[in-house]
Design goal:
Elements (H helix, E strand, L loop, with lengths): L1 E8 L5 E9 L2 E6 L5 E7 L5 E3 L7 H6 L7 E2 L5 E2 L3 E4 L2 E4 L8 E2 L12 E5 L2 E8 L10 E10 L2 E10 L3 E2 L3 E2 L17 E4 L1 E4 L13 E2 L11 E2 L9 H6 L3 E6 L7 E7 L5 E7 L3 E5 L6 E2 L4 E2 L6 E5 L8 H4 L5 E2 L5 E11 L3
Amino acid sequence: MITQKFFAKTLEGKDVTMYTLHDGDSYVNVLNYGGILQSIVVPDKKGNLTDVLLGYNNVTSYERNGGYLGALIGRFGNRIGEGKLTIDGKTYELYCNDRGNHLHGGKVGFNRKFWNVEVKGDDLVLSLLSPDGEEFYPGNLSVQVTYSFKGGELRIAYRAETDKKTAVNLTNHAYFNLNGEKDGSILNNLLQIDSDMITPTSPTMIPEGGYRFVKGTPFDFNEMKEIGRDIDAEDVDLRQGNGYDHCFVLKNPRGEYVLYATAESRRTGIRMRCYTDAPAVQFYAGNGLHQEGKNNYYGKRAGFCLETQAIPNNVNVREYAARGSSILDVGEVYSYTAAYKFDTVKN
């Protein structure tokens, strides 16, 4: 069942609606502003309902604060080096908003758009049209994102089509803390990621080519461990990211839907199993968080993100594009799915 109600007004006085996807006592709140996931409330091991998603109780904070909390990201999630996008010999200079690079769609990304919403049974279908030239991207891009929440599983299905060859790399920027969103730290959250390689980056966090094997490094999450165990280790990639903010290359080829990560809290017993058919995931440990949230101050590493996507900057690195290109041609359909399934375990 999906219900809706008025949430708040934007700084410009526009009404924002909150849609609630019910699954027994559990529920997920979604805003039509930014397609934002505002809350994910699930039972802990004692049956107490717990919000595991960082966010705000007002729209102004989503408008004014950084961090992209819970938002849909586009046209291009993550980074494009120097904002340079070359398609069929023509270079498009995208808006640069992060250390001389293009990040998360540019100056006004999908996180700041009002999405059209349609309720179809238990599916919440969000859509928008990104016009040709927006943020200097070519093509009119038609985007559809479908949220569903059944059996403890939040599923996000992405779809896009264009009328001119362009680039697209959609994701969601949810921040999780399985201790509960007001806990303040994810360092004791347990995490396992099914990945043997990350993409090393430049000092401005741009993957420029090549892979780094994680075995024997702080980036090895093939066996479950606390997020905080190695986060401050002396390592060039950790130092550049101020902690974990890196693309983990998944073992599945693009299009093969797999379980790619599992996270747990010993305190609440809440477990989150993560699925996708995307070729990579950006693991971000919330190193830059510094804002007042729903029920607490969110400081450094108060939440973590698992942003499924194609490898960042793949439009400029051929070996990355070979694992899943973000170039979308006329007549093609961009489509992939990500899911987060919640249950409890006894620790």
